[in-house]
């Protein structure tokens, strides 16, 4: 008996969770996986597939018929249906369209509706299953209707009741904790008017940037947010579990961009796709590295007459690159988290320059002494110290200024800023060191 | 009339949100800020202080008396009280202890209790305000009690009822959506027994690592989680808004560690503190850069006889560093997100080696041709191409192996891995290039 069988036998149906199944599946080898996947309750298989890393998706699809796939999709909530169909299309368009054609008309409509949104739009992340009522309904009736919807599993994980007008515009959000203390015999509106609390909904528009919506969740400590269109018509909701995923994805995207990696390409197990994307960044880096080398080439005569310069030169560039990366990372991250507001640019640049000046001076002294002793040439120490101060200062300035500038012109400050920065620190490092050496030592 | 006054006049008391006040305060200059802070409703000032970036904290405290501070703290939820007192202690221990002494005994006890937890323990993030009931209570009575607690603002943002035994052990978690469809005339236990749903609580222990707790939230799509001690006694709860903050903090920590920056030191506006921490990483980098330079020093004769080598040498190191950082970043991030399970190490290393080999070959050819033409020495092209392949291969291997190894021996894979990696890619880059040049060209 395999581990999954053990788990399924040990738990009642209501206690079985797709994430637990996914955890067990991840530990199995290929043969066990194929056998185990057939044991997963059919109504959970969609959730299990989405809980597993993307690279398992084809293994799951391989082991299922179109009919089973259709069943898996129909059991999912609308936002998850879209994710599942998206994965399926990436894997095999024919199977995807076969599955799509067998779905209920309502599911098909919902999927098409959600697929119209761009990846950065809030609408792309909402689910359409919501609990709504009209303001003149008696609370007792609303609760009875809720019980029925819940029993039939049409809606799950409900925390709010959305009160809409007859043309479906969102009027109020009532938490279930509010609803529970309402007078059940009165209408919703009567209760709302008698209450001291505010039922003004915190809402977002479907075309708003999802990053702004995440900020609303963070600022207002929300666990659910209704999504409306430009006319205020209620469309769906975004829940806290989506927000966890989005926060993680955005942080991943940012880290990857700083390192010259594409987050979409890395998701799958296709080495060629990830490698190609990485190659494009390495290509840019090669280009800038050659440019920096041409700067070195300007001083070929100097290098020929003093080989110590060739030995020490990478230290200046390396220290500048590292100090600059420190500044860059802090500024990029704080820009993303909203820790830097408009008009803050000068404060940030000043801070980074001060830090880099402080550290530049410290390491200039240390490295100056080391170089002077190592090669027994005092003025070599002075040269490397001076160029270290210059390069770290530039590193601090550009480490702060590059992302601030990119943000200002509405470009993602994480993309490309590293390569611009290291070009600066390499070029300034090599040039200042070799030029000073030419001038002072020769 | 300043902007804050406008906002406060335009909104009813129940609609005023601390985050909105914080947003307005951030736009004011120092003089306006002092005037505005006095307008903030006193019961909101604690929340406003916590909603602002840390560097505003002293401006707020300066403008408040001990009595006002006490009032601000007493209005906060327990987890926020601890945060506020922590900030206050950092700022001024005397004021902090004065404020602490004026607090109610219950508040003092709760703060002391929560302060016993380490930063990485789940207990440090919980709030103690929860809604509990015994299993034999009639639902109707429970709801009446809830209404009273809510009215008196003892508990807020409630989504769950926790059912405990007489000795306070957590038995069941009942969502308010469940409670709403219960038979109000029966006891909680009768309702639970008649339901098909599972009320088995998803809980975490107070001493568990908060990172694991965050993973539970993500995996099980939770918006609230009860926290118990080792004996199962219910202590408090963690809510989704805490999880947003923690996910963001952990991602920040990771990015900062990769760049050699300390997240705690950067939080404040003290340039010296942040600079000192950054200096310690730069110091390590200087040490390793000197080591790499000593490797170059081994080939001083070779460099002297062919200055082209000094010009090209940084390209090999730079490409290795960048390719390695790509691998490193992906592996560190996937380790944190749980995308890499145990026994996955070989798959990851293989993948990274393949990608780096693929890109190594491409850029070896490109750079080989460039170098051969640039300096008109064909064998120089062969030398740089060979060393490029070697260094990118090493970069891929170590970029994957370093974080996997650090994780294996229970060290945070983000800390220090960058500096180890760049040491490898610098040393291998310089050594392979100069050794091959010595052997092939001279």
Automatic annotation (TrEMBL), chains A, B:
Report the source organism: Sulfurimonas xiamenensis
Q: What is the lineage of its organism?
A: Bacteria, Pseudomonadati, Campylobacterota, Epsilonproteobacteria, Campylobacterales
Q: Which GO terms describe its molecular function?
A: magnesium ion transmembrane transporter activity; metal ion binding
Q: What is this protein called?
A: Magnesium transporter MgtE
Topology versus the membrane, per the UniProt entry? Multi-pass membrane protein
- Give the quaternary structure: Homodimer.
Domain Magnesium transporter MgtE intracellular residues, every copy: 16-122
Q: Which InterPro entries does the entry link to?
A: CBS_dom, CBS_dom_sf, Mg_transptr_MgtE_intracell_dom, MgtE_N_sf, MgtE_transporter, SLC41_membr_dom, SLC41_membr_dom_sf
Q: Which domain of life is it from?
A: Bacteria
